[in-house]
Amino acid sequence: MSKKILLALAFAAPTLAACTTMSNTDASTAFGAATGAGLGYLTADALGSSDEWKVLATLGGAAAGSMVAKNTNSATCAYSNGDGTYYTAPCP
């Protein structure tokens, strides 16, 4: 397990260095995607999923994390119409 952590840290340092020239919105989106990917992977790993499911959970977590970050930056929330569709409006 420690090899995985060291490998992740080795890739994280250059990635974080690249964030110094990003706007706040871009940095927030990148952070949300990274956090979502990590949580997706950890959840799949904790459930004992196969490698294929871990990849899917990581990608899904990254997508969800980036969308949450974008919505947080724009201060909009999604509301259900009750028929499977939704609309966005300012958050309360």
UniProtKB/TrEMBL annotation:
Keywords: Signal
GO cellular component: cell outer membrane
Entry-linked PROSITE patterns: PROKAR_LIPOPROTEIN
Record carries keyword Signal: yes
Signal peptide (UniProt feature, chain positions): 1-17
Name of this chain's protein: 17 kDa surface antigen
Record organism: Celeribacter persicus
Lineage, top ranks: Bacteria, Pseudomonadati, Pseudomonadota, Alphaproteobacteria, Rhodobacterales
